[in-house]
Fold each of these.
Amino acid sequence: MRSQWAVMILLIDCAFSGRVLWKMKERALAAQEWTAREHLAARADSTVRPVEGDIHQPLDHFTHTGTRTFAQKYLVNEEYWERPHGPVFLYIEGEGALSEFSVLAGHHVAMAKEHGALLVALEHRFYGRSIISGGLETQNLQYLSSQQALADLAAFHQHISQKYSLTHRNVWISFGGSYAGALSAWFRGKFPHLVYGAVASSAPVQAKLDFSSYTTVVGRSLMDESVGGSEKCVKAVYEAFAAVEAALLRGEETQVGKDFGCCDTPKSLEDQTEFLQSLADIFMGTVQYNEEVGPLTIARLCDIMTNQSKAYAEEEEAYDRLVKLTAIYRTVEKEPCLDVSYEKTILHLNKTTHVGSGYRQWFYQTCTEFGFYQTCEDATCPFSRMMTLQTQTQLCPLLFSIPQHTLLSNIDFTNQYYGGDQPQTQRVLYVNGDTDPWMALSVVRNGTNEDKHRAILIHSTAHCADMNPTRARDRTSLLQARKDIEILVGAWVKRAAQERTV
C-alpha cells in the first residue's frame, strides 16, 4: 500500500489543464501529507530525518532596486551522503507543495543511496508555502516565472554549498518531472557551471499555444492494444461524446445533468463546454497516468466503453457507458456530483486569499509563458469540438488582464529563451513514456556525438512513471529504462569525479 501511495505523491508535480484533472491533483496533495507521515513513522530504524529550512530569496532577481524577499522552503536528506565529496542530487519541485517524500523515496533517492549523494529539494516560488503575503494578487504574480525559478535554484545552490562546505568536487545532478522536468533541463542549460547533468522526466520543453497534439496522443493511446486500448474503444468514445452533444443541442440539458450527476444543470454554452471538458478530463487523466495512479486505467476504461466490463454485462449505448464511467470516476474521487459551473470555475481561479493547490498560479504561467491549452478542434480528437482554443485563452484577459493577442509572443519568447525541443545542451537526459500525451512537447530523439544518449522513450509507459519507486508489477520496458538512467547518471558522477580531482 505504501508504494502505491508513494507513486501518487511523486506524480503530483505534473502539469494539468482541466478542472477535473486539477481536482484529481488536489486529492493527491491531500493524501501526500498523510502518506509522508506514515512513511516517516514506519522508518523507526533510521535516525536521520529530512531537515527543513527556508532560504530568503529576492522577489525579483533581475532588478536591483527592490528589497522585497520571500521565504522559500527547502528540504535536505543527509542519510546517504558520503562526506565530504559525495555528489548532490537536486530534486526540483514544480507547480505544487514540496513534500518530505521528495527526499525520502523515488528513483532519484535510490540512486542517491547508490552513489552516496546528499539529497536536496527546493519548493517553487509562489507554490506551497513559498509565497509572499498577497502573492496571488495579479500585481504580485508578475514575479512568478520559470526564469525567476531558475535564479532561485542558482541562489539555492550557493546556499547549500555554503551551509555544507561543498566544493567543486561535489558534483550536482538535477531531477524533475513534467514542468519541473523542464526546469531541470533548463537549469542545466542556463547554469552549466552549477549542475553537471540533468534528468528531465516527461518534460514539456516546447511551449505551445494550441496543444492539440495532447488529445491526438490520448486518442492514439486509447487505441494501443499493448495498454488495453482498441479501435473499438476510441470509436465508442467518439460516439459517446457525439451523443452527449446531440442531447444538449436538442435542449435536453436537464436530463443530461441528471444522467451524469452534475451539481447544476449545464444550461449555458459556457457550462456545457465546462461539462464536456470535465468528461474529457476523465479520459485524459486516465491516459496520462495509466497504471500509475488510482484504479482507473486505459484497460478498465476501454472495458467499460466497449461493454466488456463484467460489472455491466448488458449491451448499452455509448452514451450510457459514458454515464457509468463518470459515476465510477465520482466514486473514486469521492465527488458527490460533477461540478460543471463555469461561473464557479472563474470564482475559484480568481481566489487571491488562499494559496490552495496552485491552480491560479499555474494558469497565470500558461498565459505568460507556456500555453499548453489542450484543445479538441483537430479531427483526430475523440472528444467534443466545443473544447476550443478560444474558450481557454479568454480566461487570460478575464483573470489577469493579459490580452489574448500577446499569448503567442509570450510563448515564442519562452522557446527562443530555452531552445524549445531543439535545445543546444549536453548531459541532459529526457525520459518519456510513449503513452504520455506530454511527450509531444519533449525531446524524444537522441542527438549526435556527446549528446547521442539524451533521450529514452519507454514503451507503454505513462507520465513521470520512471521517477517512482520500483514495483513488482512494473513493465519490463520501465524497469529497463530505470537501469539505463542509472547507467548514465553513474557515468556522469564517475566522469565528474575524475575531472575534478585534477
Amino acid sequence: MQRYVKCHIMLLFDTNLFGDKSGTSVHWKFLPLLRDFGSIKQYSRGSACLAHLYRTLCRASRFDCKKIDGPLTLMLKSNCVNEISHIRWRNWEHGDRRYGYLTLDHFRKALDDLQEGQFVWVAYVVDRVDPDIIPAEIYMHSIVWSATVPLVSFECIEWHATDRFRRQFDFVQGVPHQEQNLDKTHREVLTGPKNLNWPTATTHLFWVMQWTNRYRHVLTEHSMPPQHPLDIYMY
C-alpha cells in the first residue's frame, strides 16, 4: 500500500504540482522525499508548489520564452476571467441563454468597470469558500498565509510578498517596503553535484531559516476595514 501511495504522489508531482515542459516526466529530485514514508506529511508541498509557480511565471515573462510549465491550475482557480467564463457556461447549461451570447470582450469590460466597492478583497474567508474546496481544518493555520517569507523548493527561492497586497488579509495597504532582492539566488539552476543537500547549502541556509521562522513574519497589525486606502499610498 505504501508503494502505491508513493507512486500516486509522484504522479501528482508530475501532472499537477511540479510538472515540466515535457509533460511526461517528473524530476528525480523528488524521490528522496518519499524514502521515509512516515515523514511525507511533514513537507510543505503547498509553499514549494507556489515557489515553482512564481519561478515559472518569471521565466515565461522573458521575450524569448515560447512555452510555460508549472502548476498552472493555480492560475486558473484564481483567474477572474476564467471564473466568469465558468459562470457563463454554467448558466448556459441551466437554460439562461443570455450568457451564451456574451463575448470575452464583454467580460473584460465588466472587469474594467468594476468599482472599488464591488471588488472582494478577502476572497478566502471562511464564509466565502465552499468547505469542499478548502477544508475547515486548513483555516486553523491560516495566519501563516500572510507570512512575508521566502518560498523554498530545492534550487528555487521565490519571495512571498504579502506586504504588497495587505488588503487581501483585511489590512489597510500602506506604501510597501523596498522589494526583496534575492540577488544570485534567483538565478540558481539545478546543475552541478547531484547529491547537493539544498536546505543546508550555503546559498540557501539564510532563506531556509527565514522560512523556518515564518510565524514571526505574519502580518499582525490590527485589522481595519479595507475600503479606505491611505492617501499616501494612492499618491
Amino acid sequence: MKPAQRRSGIGKQLLVAAALVFGVGSWLYAEIQSPPPKLCGSEGGPPVTATRIRLRDGRQLAYEETGVSKERAKFKIIFCHGFSSTRLDVIRASTEIMEELGVYLVSYDRAGYGESDPNPKRSRRSEASDIEELADSLNLGSRFYLIGYSLGGHAVWASIKYIPGRLAGAALLAPVINYWWPSFPANLTEKAYNEQAVGDQWALRVSHHAPWLLHWWMKQSWLPTSTVVKATTPLPNRRDAEIREWAASNGMIEKRRKLATQQGVEESYYRDMKVMFGKWEFDPMDLHEPPFRVHLWQGDEDGLVPVTLQRYVCQRLDWIEYHELSMTGHYLSAVPGFGDLLLKTFLVRSQAI
C-alpha cells in the first residue's frame, strides 16, 4: 500500500472514531438532561388554584394560611414542608390551641413543589431569601417564628445562618441531616450511612458527588435508587409503617406525589436531594448561638433520619433544646397531641428568652 493510501485509510478511521465519540457523547448529554418543567398556569401546565405572591426574581410562590387572622395573632409562624409534601401538609394542632395561643400559620410550597415556580438556582441561601420575602409580602413584621419538618429543616438551618435577625424562634422536626457535614466524626457517619438501604446510599452518593447525573440515575430501573422516593424504606416504628401502609392502600401517597411533583420531579424531588445532600457552604454545627430559642424534636425509632447523628448535632450545639420522643418514628404529626405539645413548648418557651 502506498503511503498516500495508508494516510487516507488512517484518516477515514479517525473520522469514523471521531463521529462515534461525538455521537455517543451527544446521546449521553441528551440522556442526562431533565425535561423542562410544566409551570402552573402555563399552556398545558397545571392550573393555578393557590394564593401566590411574586418574588423579586419574578417567580411565583404559593402559600396557605391557617389559624387566627394576622391582625389577631400573637404568634406568626412560617412552616417549611418536607420531601414529597406541599403547603397543605402542616402540623396537626387543634383549633382550640391555635385560638388560645393566638397562632397564625402560613405554609408555602418550596420552589418547584406544588404551585410554586421552580428555581433552577435553588440553594440554602435562596430558601432563606424566599422565606424572608414571604414574610415581608404578608406583613408578618420584623420577626416571625419558623418551623421546618424533615427535609424542610435545611430551610431552618439556612435561615439561622442568613437571616437570624428576622427570627423570633425556630423549630426543627426530625430534620434530615447531610452525611458530609464536616463536623461529623467519620466513624459515626459511616456506620449510619451503611445502615441505609443500598439504593439510598447510591442516591445520596450521586446527589453529593455527581448531582448532574441524578436525573438519569433515578430513571434507570436497573440501578439501585432511592427507597424514599419509591416510599419503600424499611420503617422500624410500628405507627410509621401502619400509616404508610394505610396511605398507600387508599391512594394518598400517589395523590400527594402527583401534587408535589406536578411541575416536574426534577424541580421538586431531585433538586431537593441536590440541595440537601450536596456540598454545603456552611456546617450547621459551626453556627453561633442565635438570639432566640431553637427546639429540635426527634423520634428514637426514626427510619429515615438516624437518631445517632441527630444526638451528635444537638450535643455539639448545646443551645438547641433537644426533645427525643420514645418509641416514635419520623411521622411526628401523626403522634396524638404532638401538634399542641409543639406549639405550647415552642412558643411559650420562646417568649421567655
Amino acid sequence: MPDLPSDSNVSGSTPLPIFQRNPAADLRKMRRVITEDFSWSLAMVPPLSELCLQQIVSNFEKNPILDKLVPKHKTKVLDRISTLLPLKVTANLISDESYWKRCCAQRWAVCDISQYRGSWKRLYFERHLQNLIECFIPDLTDAQSILEVAELGKDYVAKLEIQQLLPPVKLEDKKEGEVDEISDSGSEVDLDLPSMDHFDLNLIANCLHGLEELHLVYGVKDCGVNFQWNLFNFTEQDCVSLAKALQIFKNLKVFRLNKSKVDDEKVRVLVRRLLNHPSLVHLDLSHNKISDRGARAVGKLMSQSQLRILNLCNNNVRSNGAQAIAHALSKNNSLTSLNLRLNHIVDEGGQALCQALLHNTSLMTLHLGSNELSEPTASVLSQVLSQNTTIKSISLSCNRIGLDGGKQLLEGITDNKTLVEFDLRLTEIGQESEIFINQVLQNNQEQARLEALEKRPPSRV
C-alpha cells in the first residue's frame, strides 16, 4: 500500500488547515499591500536627471555648471536660479536674455527695453551702475563696489544717465573744548577736507571703453525740506576731473551736462578737452549759467569738431556770444540742430545767426524762442527763407515779431519748399499772416510726405 500524503489522514477525512501545519509559510502567503494614497504612481518619483538639476540650481553660486548641460537642461537651470546671485558669478557666464529679464523685473517696476537696443542684460548693468553712482557719498561709500560692477559690465554699458550726484556729508562742528591736533610744524594734521566733491568718473573711465552716451546732473533730486544751495554745486575740482574723464571716453557720442551751474570758466575747461574729439556729435549744456565767454568757447568747438546737435537752452548767452556762434555756424558743415531758447541774444544776435544761414547748408533745426527778438530779426530771416533750401524747422515763439515782421516772414516763406515746422506762437504777427504761413507749411508737409513714399522701398508680397 503506497504512502499517503502527510497532509491527509488515513481515514480520508478533510485535511488540516494550512496555518496549523506550517504557520510561518502561511503568514507569508497572507500578507497584502494596502495603499492609503490612491493617486500614487511610479511616475511621481522624480527621475535622476531632475534630482541632478535641483542640486545644480541649489549650489550654483559655489559651483556654476551651465555650459556643459544640454540645451533643455540649461534652460531649466536658467529658469530656476536666483536673480540675487553675485554678478561675479553671472556676468560673464550667463548671456540668456530671459534670465536678465527676470533680474530687471525683480528690481524695477518699469523697464523700457527699447532704450537699450533690445538687450535686458545691457539694461540691467546700466541701471545698476547708475544707481550705485547716484547713491555714492564721497569718503563714506566704498567705491570698490562701483569699480567691480564697471569692470564686469564693461562690454554691456553704453549709456549712463546720472540724475544726481551727492556731495560729501558735512561734518558736525567740533565739540566745545575740543582741541585740534597740531603737528610739530604748527599746521593742522587733519583738515577734514573731502577727497572729492562728487563721484569721480576717472575711477571707472578705463573700464567703460564702450561708453557712447553720458548724462550728468551735479545736484540732488527730491531733497525736499533739506534743500541747500551747496547740494547743487559743480565745483572746480569736479570740472577738472570730468574733463579728464571725457578725454578717456573716446567713443562718447552724446554728452549732456544739465542743471549744474556750469559757468564760463568751467565750460572753457570742458571744451578744451573736447576739441578734436573723435566721436562727439551731440553736446547738451542746457539749464546752466553759460554767458558770452562760454559761448565763444563753444563756437570754437563747433569749428574743430563734428558736432551735429548743440543745445544751449536756458543760459545767459547774449548778443556777443550769439555772434560768435553765428561766425562758427557760417563755416560749419556738420551741425544739423541748434537750440538757443531762453537766452538773451536780442536782435543783434538773432540777425547774425540768420545771416549765417545764408552760407550754412547743413542746419535743419533752429530754436530761438524767448530771446527778445523783434522785427529786424524777422527781416533777415525772411531773406533766409527765400534762399535756404536745407532748414526744415524754426521756432521764434515768445518773441515780439509784430505785424510788420509777420508780413516779411510771409513774403519770404511764399516760395519756400523745405520748411515744414514754423513755431510762431505768442509772436504777435497777426492772424492773417499766421493763416497764410500755415497754408504754405501744409503744402510743404504734403510734398515731403509724397517724397518719403516715393523713396520707400517696394513691399514684398
